[in-house]
Every structure is written in C-alpha cells, then in structure tokens.
Amino acid sequence: MRSVKIYSPATVANLVCGFDVLGMCLNEPNDIMEVKLLEEKKVTIKSKDGYNLPADPAQNTAGAPLLAMLEELKEPAGFEVTIEKHIKPGSGIGSSAASAAGSVVAANHLLGNIFSKEDLVRFAMFGEKVASGVKHADNITPCIYGGITLIRSIFPLDIVSIPAPRLYVTVVHPQIEVRTSDARQILRKEVLLKDAIRQWGNIAGLVAGFIKQDYELIGRSLEDVIIEPVRSILIPGFDEVKKSCKEAGALGGGISGSGPSIFMLSKDEATANEVGKIMQDIYAKIGLPHHVYVTTVNNEGVRIIKN
C-alpha cells in the first residue's frame, strides 16, 4: 500500500483589503496528514486529534475534494486519509483549506502528479464549500502554490503568483471560534461606490507594493473599508491590537480570513517579536486564552515529508 505524509500549512486570506482574492501561505503552524492509495473507489477519513470532525467524506473538508478527484479518474482508486490537526478549526488561518489542499496534493503525488495545480485548487474548493457553503480559493491557492497569490477569477480559475519582499508575520489566535459561514452572513449586501473605489485602490496598491518591494506602499494599502468594520466587532481587543502593533512599527495588518485570528506584517524579526509581545499583553489583560505565532511567508506550500 503506497502512502505519503505531508505538512499542510496555515494561510492568511484576504490580506485586509483583498476579500476572497488575496492569500498568503505561512511557515507555521502546519497540519500533518498521511494519505494512502487504495485499490477501490472510496475515501475514508481518520482523525488523530480531539476535534469532532465529520467522518463522512462528503461532509469532511479533506474528503469532499478527494471525492471530486475520483470522479475524474479513469481507473479505480481510492484514498485513506489520516489527519493530525495543529491548525484549530474556526481559527481564521485556513484550517479547512489545509485539510482540503493537503489531501489533494498528497493524492496527486500518489497518482504520479497527473493533475495540475489549478486542477488541485478546483478540487479543493469542494472542501471550502463544505466548511462555509461557498466555493472560495483565497486560502486554498496559497496553500497549494505557496507564497502570495491573487485569484483574479474563480469561474474560470485564473491564479496569479505575486512576488513579494521578505516579510515577517505575527498572528494571534484568541481562543474563540468565528465560523466562516456566520462571518459571511453579517456582511453588507451592498457597498457604496466611494468605498468600492477606495478598496480597489488599496488592493492595487498592495499588489504593486509586493511586486516593487515597497514596504511603505504595502503599509498604506493594508486598509479595509468594507469588510473589517463589520467583522471586527466579533473579535475582542481587535482595535487595540491593530493600533498598538502599528505604533510599535508593524507595517499593518488586520483580520486573518474571517477571524478571530489577527495578523500583522513587519519588515524585520525584532519588530515581529515585539508585535507578538504586544498581542500577548493585550489578551492577557482581557483574560482571553490565545496563541501567538511569529513566522514568515512560506513560498513552497504543502510539503511532502515522507513517502
């Protein structure tokens, strides 16, 4: 029985102003997954952690993408997936995407890499639909491609990898859960034209800042006038974290995905560590348990660690 073990990384979606179109892959934390190739057309899911995730593959974020993949295979095959989650579900740093992306990358490796990365994103979006009710790719794409990615279009898929300067990423995960589906429900259905124009400018500025390695432009562009004002009310301490971290020298940041995690970008490791201390102090004062990660951009994506 052939098998493969992989690290599937956390991701930050939206990057403040790029709702559903921008994403970034992180070096920490990672889920660990083992996928075995079976000789019959079925998918089984096993869990090595305490999270009560569905065993039914059609309702599991790792299983649904594999079922979609099997529909396009000509010969009979199947997969057994064992998941050890270190990215907590509902954390806002791509837990469902890590499962979805990790399963399809591992399965494709076992099949001899017969599918393209774009195909893998297409399959993995079935996992995001299970998690949130909507097919979106802003976490999945950087998880599979690595680095920072722009999803110009979902139907049809049009993915652009964006070169970026070295960036340090500090993430705080308050130990509360914000479900992606709930966070989508509270969003406004209509947007003022002046807000849309400002948001477009920020997205374009952020992408240009990455490509030009212009840290000041990156900082100016990390502004969200549409999503953040609504979603931030779900995250205790958000305004204080953002204000204090920017005063300490962070370029900027905001809600990671749908929250509750908050991320901040920094030019250097010393600033990133100071930002982490500020986050810890704020949540210690609030009395809310939390995890802090100080990491960098992962340019590889899902990584095979054992055949």
Task: Write up what this structure looks like.
The protein has two domains: 3-162 and 298-306, Ribosomal Protein S5, domain 2, CATH 3.30.230.10; 168-296, GHMP kinase, C-terminal domain (Alpha-Beta Plaits, 2-Layer Sandwich), CATH 3.30.70.890. Strands 1, 2, 3, 4, 5, 6 and 11 form a seven-stranded mixed sheet that branches. Helix 2 runs antiparallel to helix 3, helix 6 packs antiparallel against helix 7 and helix 9 packs antiparallel against helix 10. The chain is built from ten helices and eleven strands. It has helices at residues 63-70, 95-110, 117-132, 140-145, 180-185, 193-212, 215-221, 228-231, 238-247, 269-286; strands at residues 3-13, 22-38, 43-47, 78-84, 148-153, 158-162, 168-174, 252-255, 262-266, 290-296, 303-306. Strand 5 and strand 6 form a beta hairpin. The longest helix is centred in the middle third of the chain and has 20 residues, at 193-212. It is 36% helix and 25% strand. The protein is α+β, with helices and mostly antiparallel strands and 307 residues long. The N and C termini lie close together (11 Å). The radius of gyration is 19 Å and the shape is globular.
